[in-house]
Amino acid sequence: MESAAETVAEASEAADSPPGTGPGASQARSRPRRRVLIGSLAGCLVLGGVLLCLPGEGADRTAPAPAPGAQAQAAVRTGVAAALPDLAVLIGEREARVRAHPKDARSWAVLGSAYVEQGRRTADTAAHYPKAERALRTSLSVRPARNTEALVGLAALANARRDFPAARSWGEAARKAAPRRWTAYPQLIDAYTGLGEHKKAKAALDRLLELRSGPAVLARAAAVYRDRGWREDAAAALSDAAAGAVSPAERAAYLERAGQLAWERGDREAALRHFQEAVRLDPDQRAAQAGQGRAQAALGRTSEALSAYQVALAKQPLPQYALELGELYESLGMAQAARVQYDLLRERVREEEAGGVDGQLLLGRFEADHGDPAVAVRRLGALWQRRPAIEVADALGWALHRSGRHEEGLRYAVIATDRAHDGTVRSAPYMYHRGMIERQLRRDGAARRHLAEALRINPYFSPLHARTARTALVALGEPSMAKVPKFS
């Protein structure tokens, strides 16, 4: 496990870890945890030896914590979460630096990456993402050759904008410029996943695990494991990542992801604990606050849920939060309050688009359920041509169904849920969508199976649709015995 000082030193030197010579890809899932445990044990032994060698009068001294700007710089250069106050300090420092030294390519790259993180944390993408792009491109113009930091920063910006083809291009350029530089691989994993290229994402993870260990790598591994349906491995990797985090903001980010994993498997109480601890560690962790709303609503704590969502939206006004809050209001029979949130969703998507963010997937999902399904089909059909990913297949299949094109919808729903088509994510909404389409097509056995699976995965997956799934399953009844062959 790395100390904060080691992380800062690594960021300052931009040192690359040499490739390892450990086991092959078949052992990739167990390697991260073993590395963390071995690293922790080695760290304890070394620390014990150091303490024995120190003079008695200095035994109670502790190393000073890195300055806020240094902490944030270490975070943004290694792709982990940074605290908002520390980010503000770092941005002020780097802005002053590039004014005085406009040919400092590294400072321009750090500044651009800090803007990306600030835009992500505040959801003020229109203000921060264009500035990030200008800073990163300035870094490249100052130092065009082997400027890996700027290339990785541009890949991170493209991923944040959901421009996954551009993220793939920038990430592959960074990998080509410095094949042993590990920081390019997390961005490649995100880009490949966003494009539905799951085998490439797994190969990028395998290479990352050869080059590097530590919390940031474990968190990336957890995302890949989750997408492949390996929930236990994902949860274990996130647990190890949180244990090894070097700052409260970083640990809070991993706990938020652990809470999301718990939520996806229907464990409301565990999800709420993770979300609450994340907010305690980092009060600016708005994704965890929205997660609290999700879990509290499932637990019947409606007033607390509404309050949590409202706080999250006030500080990080993401359209996804507005959709979730609107559906919660709708489930409570508060139609006018729901419409307010849906209007906010549209406004926020427009504002994000000013920062270059692609909001077509969320808009398509919204239109399918709360607007014009035909519009949803057009949006999502165009998106599928650019991004043939599992989440797009699910959304497009549902939109086709909602617009009356059930057979076409089923083809995409199968892609999203069939392991033969890489549909390995264990998702209650995906199973629900497939089951409801099959019910419409009078394929009762398959519908019954998939609706029941949705409710087994997470009985609380949506305040609106979980109720519909239960009603539909009851209406389907038990399998009929009339068609069962009799044997004498």
TrEMBL record:
Coiled coil: none annotated. Residues 1-32 are annotated as: Disordered. Residues 1-15 have a biased composition (Low complexity). InterPro entries: TPR-like_helical_dom_sf, TPR_rpt. The keyword Kinase does not apply. Keywords: Membrane, TPR repeat, Transmembrane, Transmembrane helix. SUPFAM superfamilies: TPR-like (SSF48452). Pfam families: TPR_16. TPR repeats lie at residues 252-285. Signal peptide: none annotated. The chain crosses the membrane at residues 36-52. This is Tetratricopeptide repeat protein.
